[in-house]
TrEMBL record:
Keywords: Glycosidase, Hydrolase. GO terms for biological process: purine nucleoside catabolic process. The lineage of its organism: Eukaryota, Sar, Alveolata, Dinophyceae, Suessiales. Belongs to the IUNH family. PANTHER family: INOSINE-URIDINE PREFERRING NUCLEOSIDE HYDROLASE, URIDINE NUCLEOSIDASE. GO terms for cellular component: cytosol. This is URH1 protein. InterPro entries: Inosine/uridine_hydrolase_dom, IUNH, Ribo_hydro-like. Gene3D superfamilies: Ribonucleoside hydrolase-like.
């Protein structure tokens, strides 16, 4: 089975791994890369996408996306995690001239879906602004897309919840209005959030082995060093596998345990950015979750098997 996908991304160290995963996996046909502000500003993440496309030998076009959230000023970029340029501050050569698709990302997304009805899966591993803009531009894509898989959110099922605040995950709090709109659309949406992505960890030894596996893997290992140092400050001897886990779900859904229900995103106050799923078995009084579509959220994962899958696709074997 082949999955024809567009990755909406803000490269980003873990985004770089996800791009290599998508490029390498034989069941994934990467037809487009759209960029979104987040791990760095839109200029840097777009340059990063072009650089990675060139270095990894990816044929898919790159389209530049939104530079700011729908309804609020952008927060600061997480330079303490991804470096000032988003790729761990490695030296970055420019992408090929003319490599940017002339359409803004949301138009690229809607055009691809309308030209390939029932075939395109959107894999969004950053803020959800481009997806919200696409829905606003062409609401009919909700009925034409094959599926939507996001890396985002936290549903309080596996220990600590958020990673920006106690309740909010970075991709959601970065544009909560866009996230609430995306969760409310009537399309098949799956959220792979912190509940599972923090269970899948690549060790320092895994990254060191990547460095010996080939030019693409060596680049990935080099730009991951600062990311490893950030995780070490959290007491983790390795790094979480966030964005690649969303692609892992796409090709191996059997590795995940899922929960279904309507989701609202808190857009204001102390809980801003929280993803709140209603318990479908509880008879609540009328509320703001009523008449919302059910989404599927990952609440469990076979972490060992997921790690092994990532290592295999990136080009090394699991020695653990």
């Amino acid at each position: 089975m082949t999955h024809k996908i567009i990755i909406d991304t803000d490269p980003g160290v873990d985004d770089a791994a996800a791009l290599l995963f998508a490029h390498n996996h034989p069941e994934i046909d990467l037809v487009g890369i759209t960029t979104i502000f987040g791990n760095a500003d839109i200029d840097n993440v777009t340059a990063n996408a072009l650089f990675l496309k060139q270095h990894f030998g990816i044929a898919a076009p790159v389209a530049r996306g939104a530079s700011r959230a729908l309804a609020r000023a952008n927060g600061p970029s997480p330079t303490h995690v991804h470096g000032s340029n988003g790729l761990g501050d490695i030296a970055r050569s420019d992408g090929a001239a003319g490599a940017i698709d002339p359409r803004p990302a949301h138009r690229f997304i809607t055009d691809c879906i309308e030209d390939n009805p029932g075939e395109i899966t959107l894999v969004a591993v950053g803020r959800l602004t481009n997806l919200a803009l696409a829905l606003n531009h062409a609401p009919q894509i909700a009925a034409l897309v094959k599926g939507v898989v996001i890396m985002g959110g936290a549903f309080s099922t596996a220990g600590p919840n958020g990673n920006v605040t106690p309740v909010a995950e970075a991709n959601i709090i970065g544009d909560p209005e866009a996230a609430d709109q995306v969760f409310s659309a009537d399309w098949p949406l799956t959220a792979i959030g912190l509940d599972v992505t923090r269970q899948v960890i690549l060790s320092r030894e895994d990254v060191a082995e990547l460095a010996q596996a080939g030019p693409s893997q060596a680049l990935l290992a080099r730009l991951t060093q600062g990311y490893l140092d950030y995780h070490a400050r959290l007491g983790i001897d390795g790094c979480y596998v966030h964005d690649s886990s969303a692609l892992g779900y796409l090709v191996r859904p059997d590795l995940f345990q899922m929960q279904s229900g309507p989701v609202r995103v808190a857009c204001d106050g102390v809980a801003r950015g929280q993803t709140i799923m209603a318990d479908i078995h509880t008879p609540y009084p009328p509320n703001r979750w009523d008449d919302r579509p059910h989404i599927s959220a990952a609440v469990g994962v076979d972490a060992r098997a997921m790690r092994a899958l990532v290592l295999e696709v990136l080009g090394i074997s699991d020695q653990a």
